[in-house]
Amino acid sequence: MQNTPEIEATLSQLTDLCCDALQGDGEFNDEQAERLTVNLATNGWKQHSKEGPPLSTVLKDRVRTQCPEPAIHRGAAIDGVVAKVSRLYEQASRFDDHAPDNESPESLPPRTLG
């Protein structure tokens, strides 16, 4: 299944973030990664990825393609960075799954006094 432009842009930014973390003394920007993973969950990555590989595999492949030089020598570092992103995404998607949906047929009607 083809990704939406929003999902593709978010995946691209996550790949950039991972590549930046692999460069020299690069640090992983947790705040930006959290915003991007929330964006990914909000834009329906779970729906789009049902037939495809998990997020960790997609990111590893993109990182190896986009920044091959550090990726060749830093396989464990890639695994660590991608694992952080995957954990953040799981947290974001869990929150998204448990957020109340006002349009849900199971929603209770509002209570009234009287």
What does this entry look like structurally?
The chain is 68% helix and 0% strand. It has 114 residues and is mainly α. The chain has one domain (5-98). Helix 1 packs antiparallel against helix 2 (30-42), helix 1 (5-22) packs across helix 4 and helix 4 packs across helix 6 (75-98). Residues 92-114 are annotated as: Disordered.
Outline, from the CA principal axes?
globular
- How far the N terminus sits from the C terminus, by CA atoms, comes to 51 Å
Query: In the residues, how many domains can be counted?
Result: 1
Radius of gyration: 17 Å
Contiguous helical run count: 6
Helical proportion, percent range: 55-70%
Biggest sheet features: none
Low-confidence stretches: 101-105
Q: Could you state the oligomeric state of the chains shown?
A: single chain
Overall number of strands: 0
Structural class, by secondary structure, is: mainly alpha
Order of helices and strands: HHHHHH
Q: How much β-strand is present in the residues?
A: under 5%
Task: Calculate the mean pLDDT score and round it.
Answer: 81
Region (Disordered): 92-114
Brief overview:
The chain is 68% helix and 0% strand. It is mainly α.
Q: Which features would summarize this protein structure in a list?
A:
114 residues, mainly alpha, globular
